Amino acid sequence: MGKILLEVRELTTKYVTRFREDVYAVDHVSLQVEEGKALGIAGESGCGKSTLALSLMGYYFAPLHYISGDIIVDGRNITGMDPDTVRKAVLGRDVAYIPQAAMNALNPTQKVINFIEDVIKVHDLGADKKEIYERARILFETVGLPESVLHKYPVELSGGMKQRTVIAIAVLLSPKVLIADEPSSALDVTSQKMVIKMLMRLMEDGLIGSLIFITHELPLLYNVTDDIMVMYAGQIVEKGTAREIVFDPLHPYAKGLMGSIIVPEEGVRDVKLTAIPGAPPNLKKPPSGCRFAERCKYVQPLCKVTSVGFKELDNGRTYRCIFSEAELREAYQNG
Amino acid sequence: MKHTLQQVFHSGKFVIGFVIFVALMLIVIIYPLIITDAPLTIIAQGTFFKPGIYVNVYDSMNAPKYTLLLEDADAKRIASRLTPEDRQAMKEWLIAIGIPDNAIDIEDTAQLLGLWETHFDPKMQIAGMTNAKRNYYIRLNTSLEGLLATEGAIIAAKNADTGALEEKGNVGQSEFVNVTQVANVRVLPLGTDNFGRDVLTQLVTATRVSLQIGFIAGLIATLVGLTLGLLAGYVGGWVDDIIMFVTNLFTVIPGFVLLILISFSIGQERRGATTVAVVIGFTSWVWTTRAVRAQVISLRNRDHVNLSKLSGHSLVHIILNDILPYIASYVVMAMILQISSGILAEAGLSILGLGPRTTDVPTLGLMMNWAMIYQAHVLGKWWAYLPVLITIALITFSMNLMNTGLDQVFNPALRD
Amino acid sequence: MAEEKQVCLSGKGLTKVFGFGRQRTLAVDHVDFSFYEGEIVSIVGESGSGKTTLAKMLLGLINPTEGEIAFQGQVRDISSQKKRKEYWKNIQAIFQDPFSSYNIFNKIDAVLLDCIHMRGGRNLPHEKKVELMTEACGFVNLKFAELTNKYPFELSGGQMQRLMIARIFLLKPKVLLADEPTSMIDACSRATILDMLMDLRREIGMTLIFITHDIGLAYFVSDSVYIMEHGKIVEHGSADEVILNPKEVYTRRLINDVPKIYEEWDLSTV
Predict the structure, then answer these.
(1) pLDDT tens digits for A159-183?
(2) Does the beta carbon of C265 lie under 8 angstroms from any beta carbon of chain A?
(3) Which residue from A26, B70, B295, C118 lies 20 to 30 Å from C46 (Cα-Cα)?
């Protein structure tokens, strides 16, 4: 087992809506990321995966609020730190974050090299322009971006190129953990593939210690990550290796999610897609029992009242359901 | 809908603007019910009477008298007739004729008047004194007569037969009348203007008329702008080309210049308040057109419009049901701005003497125009122009606040 | 098998040019196609390939610059509002974004009533209309009684898209054009929507045209596939033919670049 770079224990955060309602979008989430590994977080829109991504940075601003839990980055607990210290000493160096529409966050009046200078300045690295340029050039060469991009304005770059540039800037200080929230979902397939290839290369070259990859596109997740966690209604419902989750999901929600995968490969046409009826629960008033109970095919009266804890299998897989592994498998066999 | 209204009233800016505006509207509606005078009646002989309470002297003679013994009554009476400047002038005169400086105490009224009575001689020539100054001293001397007298004044009337004066009554120094018992009292909170008309009554009417001009102008500008904008944006093609050509023409010619030229060519006599409002309306639709067109173009390709087309709806139906509701809030905001700029445009025109004809109704602009022509600002008659300025500022301020407030509610990017 | 069937919708030399001079862009470039009755067709392309423009021309929302469209063997004539209305009884659409597909000021009843009116049911008694609407909602697993007097934005994305299908159920067109009908909704609702579209097609026997960027989806649902690139159709044929044995470089690239789960996803090709 490799060195643990990020450990999150029972993290709970909420955000406050415009109408002053509390939404507990991340509810007692625990996770671990080892050095050199990629962790995937899967789930539908509104299940809290983007809020989790923001919460993992340890840098909270309205409407997102920290409630409880610990975030330990490489042995250092960052939850107690004041926001400014987190911003200067943790973000970028230890944890870097690429939001969904990162490529649109580039100021159109600045050249790419200016963004890199900014990052260096904020972190007080005290390098002069020439050193910064040299550093940027080497980085761009490593990640396979042409040097000429440094002299361009964001509007002169294509979507895929912009996204790769943003990622390159994010990993400038070789963060231990890179959190990528849907980094490629706004791109066409070819650009998406380039972004993925770049992320893989960053891992191989050790420019980032580990990767947390968040997306709703399961085939992509399967190809990028080592482990996958499935999120539903603010909670983790299942965790396992990518292969286990995609081909042998245990939790009924994960099962439904994996049953909706469509890929252009032989045999896919004969598969019957599974549908999950209904909609995720309202997180302003989450149900007291299993949060998936309302939509679950195998629901028992008990599910709706008892809070369901994790069950752990011998190989380290965990899932949140009242049924045992054998019971679930039997239920799936019978359809 | 209800929710949106609630949100609108949660916006502090909108509420402040709304309160100011409603207060103005209430004054405009309620004031004429209390003071029923025609706004342009000339009530004062003379120009620029100061703001204050005007009590009829003749009626107060006949009003019931009350005796009030007030300690500072004498001092106030003397002070009203003998100002500190007068005292200083008296001292200067006395020094000039050789009284030593330390012998004069200008605070001691009795001593000062004693010295004055013994030494003042209107015929005396003092070196370096101008004629005007000497006349001032003569006037001052007359006004001081009986200043320290303690007996009352006699009211006398002429006997119709003999022509002799007969004593009718006596008014003592400590006698008072109750203002409410005097038959004729007129409060002029803002005094009178150059023609001798009550400024406040005029101001209230002028506010009403200016608001009407603003509303008519704003309504016309919005309707024209909306219609052209909807057509240009939705129909597109050559309709858009023609409308945009005309709009661009109007954009490059400064609106105000156009307004001046049209107003001038209509002629003073045919320029009523409504005419001016219509002219303002027809010269200021350009921005609404452009803005509405831009909004419609972005809506035109939305799927709900496509769906409406696929449902076989006609052009008119689509414009009214699928486009207009989406831009309604925007149009209301644009109209508020058009109204306030219409009021300003009228004020601007009238100051230049191109406003409505001066004989039927006052407007805020006309009041400014009169104050300027009769040099109220030079003469320091602030009540003739300052209240008008404040009213204009309040109207436009409240409308712009409401507009910003609405903008915050309807434009998610500006919400805090 | 396609030969035996009747051509439902076809295009010849269909071209759409936007702009003039230097800004002139050829959105759709001399495209020929024939869609057969009862067939499921996918038009696959990346953004900017012209697939949406082609869809709008098929729907008669924009006029082609050149070329003609034939519907059921006859050249389409939509020069007047009356003729357009007649055409739209035969061809309908479901759009990508359910949230922008509805007029937020109209209630759900109005959306469905429009469809009944379009099918000539304007003078039906109110009870009959309610019955029809209830049936349509029932088809997509929605309860009309719960929807009446509600606004579309009170529904979830999946429910809105189902309501769109209910609309088509009432209209019973010959051709349904689905423009990325599942790309904005959750993976789990996707299966529901696709199933309902298939059921609907069986129910009213219409031709179904999918416009999509997702080549996996195209392979999953369709009988024949058209691949578009830069306004041109670069390859077409039966789904198995095109996806499993692509002949064109572009098609091969498109398939290659989609992440796989059964086979190795080859990252070295970019």
Answers:
(1) 889 999 999 999 998 999 999 999 8
(2) yes
(3) B295
